[in-house]
User: Which sequence fits this backbone?
């Protein structure tokens, strides 16, 4: 069964404050060396998906730089591969709006792909869904569309914005809604046969609709048979600064780290060649995730350091996320803080946020 992929960023809002001032949410760095987009792309790569469209509308310079031709995900192909499709509306007869614009104006991508089924994903839900298993169960069920959901025992604030999925004993969906007390979260992932996908797209446009999931699946005017696929692995929702900080630091738990970065389903990212981290005399690093290229002479505790970070002697970093090439000068204290790339914290400066609401500093700032 051949699959084609769509990663749709059109509906995703810039909810990570300073981290999304200059980039789309999907391009936000995560876990020391990755970007949020890497997880959806890697899931598709691991399932052998060879044609992937990325629908973007704004702030996509950072994404273009990170993804390039798609080499790390084996998508730099002569036929097929990765198609980054920013908005380009030049058809005066086009009446489509919302994310249906992307689908309508890029119909050639769907027509030319050899994929039989469309796997449609966002980037805010991090997971390790096995798309091959998803496709096999979708075909066996006889459903028109299968939506993926995760049952969570503990509802967190970041779950408030998620749709909920009600599934009957027969495995088919009885309802999709936003009732806050329901524990089956839709993780913004579904699969549908390509011909039916195109048919529903044209139907929605003809009826003045805007968004495929909401208007074709949630409202379901065509009476589609919708099946539910329960995903039971690692899952995190990144839709706020608080959820970003919390889910990042939870990766310091080795069990959670191994769930997300399991060797049988590797996560790929843009390759950079840098020297190993250098720990100088007096360095004290505990319970932290440190990428390569760093230079540490101070104290780092329960934190994540991206590539090329410098922590000078006498500096202290606690419960924080420090992105690429930041410098923490001697005597500075950083606690419950997120520093975007290329931030300089000068000598003896103290930055302290709250663990429930971290302090965020925009990229290239000097404090």
Assistant:
């Amino acid at each position: 069964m051949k699959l084609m992929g769509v990663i749709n960023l059109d509906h995703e809002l810039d909810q990570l404050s300073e981290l999304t001032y200059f980039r789309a949410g999907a391009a936000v760095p995560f876990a020391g060396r990755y970007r949020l987009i890497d997880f959806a792309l890697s899931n598709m790569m691991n399932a052998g998906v060879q044609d992937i469209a990325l629908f973007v509308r704004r702030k996509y310079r950072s994404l273009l730089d990170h993804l390039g031709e798609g080499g790390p995900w084996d998508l730099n192909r002569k036929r097929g591969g990765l198609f980054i499709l920013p908005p380009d509306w030049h058809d005066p007869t086009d009446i489509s709006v919302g994310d249906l614009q992307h689908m309508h104006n890029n119909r050639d991508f769907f027509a030319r792909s050899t994929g039989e089924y469309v796997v449609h994903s966002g980037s805010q839900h991090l997971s390790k869904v096995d798309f091959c298993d998803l496709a096999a169960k979708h075909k066996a069920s006889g459903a028109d569309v299968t939506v993926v959901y995760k049952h969570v025992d503990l509802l967190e604030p970041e779950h408030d914005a998620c749709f909920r999925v009600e599934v009957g004993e027969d495995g088919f969906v009885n309802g999709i809604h936003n009732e806050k007390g329901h524990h089956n979260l839709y993780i913004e992932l579904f699969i549908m046969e390509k011909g039916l996908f195109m048919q529903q797209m044209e139907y929605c446009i003809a009826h003045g609709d805007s968004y495929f999931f909401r208007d074709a699946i949630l409202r379901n005017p065509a009476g589609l048979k919708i099946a539910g696929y329960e995903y039971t692995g690692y899952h995190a929702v990144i839709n706020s600064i608080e959820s970003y900080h919390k889910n990042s630091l939870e990766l310091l738990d080795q069990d959670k780290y191994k769930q997300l970065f399991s060797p049988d389903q590797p996560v790929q990212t843009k390759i950079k060649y840098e020297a190993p981290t250098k720990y100088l005399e007096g360095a004290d690093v505990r319970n932290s995730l440190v990428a390569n290229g760093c230079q540490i002479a101070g104290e780092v505790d329960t934190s994540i350091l991206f590539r090329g970070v410098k922590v000078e002697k006498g500096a202290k970093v606690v419960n924080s996320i420090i992105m690429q090439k930041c410098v923490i000068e001697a005597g500075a204290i950083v606690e419950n803080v997120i520093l975007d790339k290329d931030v300089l914290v000068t000598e003896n400066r103290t930055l302290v946020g709250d663990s429930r609401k971290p302090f965020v500093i925009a990229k290239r700032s000097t404090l």
Notes: The chain has two domains: 3-260, 278-361. The chain has nine helices and 28 strands. The mean pLDDT is 94.
